[in-house]
Structures are given as structure tokens and as C-alpha cells.
Amino acid sequence: MDTLSWLFAHVCGQHHCWVMGGFVLPLCQRCTGLYVGGTFAICWIAALRPFPSSLVLWIHGLMMLIMAPFGYHLVAHGASVRMITGLLFGFGLTYYLALNPAIRVGAFEKRGNNVFYWAGLLLFIPLALLAVHSQASAIGVAIAAVALVGLATYVVLLILNLIVLPRAMWDIVKAMVMDRAR
Question: How large is the angle between the packed helices 2-9 and 137-181, nearest 10 degrees?
């Protein structure tokens, strides 16, 4: 676990950490939500492929925006709220990072079932809170492993975006030129 603490120290202040059965998670409560939420979100996005309508994009954007008053401590909050805001931010961030690569491979051509997608995200929040309030150290180890997968997910999505971004930018420029030519 020292390796995980060292690794997460590069992306997390490691204050306000969950303690489960004597096991201290190697990341703070908000980052636990961020990385665990990222793992769940990428699996859920891959399974249900929620179509990127304006409403879906706005809701994911609002999920990320809600972090501002809590992240800057403009609103008093406790451990569970830190975790929930991390989860919501993780859901929104993962969706936006997955969007460009997924569109490039045609993952959203078939409309996914958005109702199941939203229901799953909403049901995951209390389940994640139950898990971190558990006193079983084995659950703490599992959460740390899932958070590590979430960190790796963000790294992979960032790399994928860097790979497909030049093509996406070229397509935008080409479309603008074609519109002017008309």
C-alpha cells in the first residue's frame, strides 16, 4: 500500500482519507469519488453508450460544475458530500473524456438507453457511500484497487484524446472551409 500512497500523492493531497477497519485509503474522500466514479462511469458508458444529446452533455457539464462551490470550500460540507461531489465530477469528466474517442470509432451510432444509464449512476452513489462507510479493511483494499483503475482510465482517455484531437480539429477546419465555399 505504500506504493499506492506514493502514486496517489502525485494527484491527491491525501487529507480527509477514509479509514476502513484500520486501513487508510491512499487518497482523500473527494479523490476516492473521482477515481472510483471514473472506473464505474467508463464501464457504464461502454455498456450503455448514452447518446450525446444536448441534455446529456449539459447534465454531465453540471455534474462537473457542482464541484466548484465545494472544491473551493464556499459551502460547508463533510465526508459524504466530498465523496458525492467527487463521484459526480468523475462521472462528468469521464463522459467528456470518452466522448471524442468514442465518436471517432462510432460507438454512439446506436442510441443507448439513457434511462438505465442515469438510473445506474444514481444508484451507484449510495452503494459507493455504503462501501466507504464499511469497517471491512478488505473493502478498503478493493476501493483502492478500483481507484487505481480509475486513475489509469483517465490516463488512457487523455492519451486517446491526444491521438484523435488532431483529426477532430482537422475535421472542424475542413467543415468551416466547406461552409464558406457554399
Answer: 30
Query: Domain segments of the chain: what residues?
Result: 2-172
Continuous H helices in 114-136: 114-132
Indicate the Cα dihedral angle 104, 157, 30, 10, nearest 10°.
-160
pTM: predicted TM-score of the whole model, two decimal places? 0.88
Give Cβ neighbours of residue 80 (< 8 Å, ≥ 6 apart): 129
Task: Map 60-115 to HEC letters.
Answer: HHHHHHCHHHHHCCCCCCCHHHHHHHHHHHHHHHHHHHHHHHHHHCCCCCCCCCHH
Is the distance from CB of 49 to CB of 101 less than 8 angstroms?
A: no
Encode the chain (182 residues) as per-residue pLDDT tens digits: 688 889 999 999 899 999 998 889 999 999 999 999 999 999 999 988 888 889 999 999 999 999 999 888 898 899 999 999 999 999 999 999 999 899 888 887 666 568 899 999 999 999 999 999 998 999 999 999 999 999 999 999 999 999 998 887 888 788 888 888 77
CB 114 within 8 A of CB 61: no
Cell of 50: 448514452
Check if the beta carbon of residue 150 is closer than 8 Å to that of residue 37.
yes
Amino acid, res. 34: L
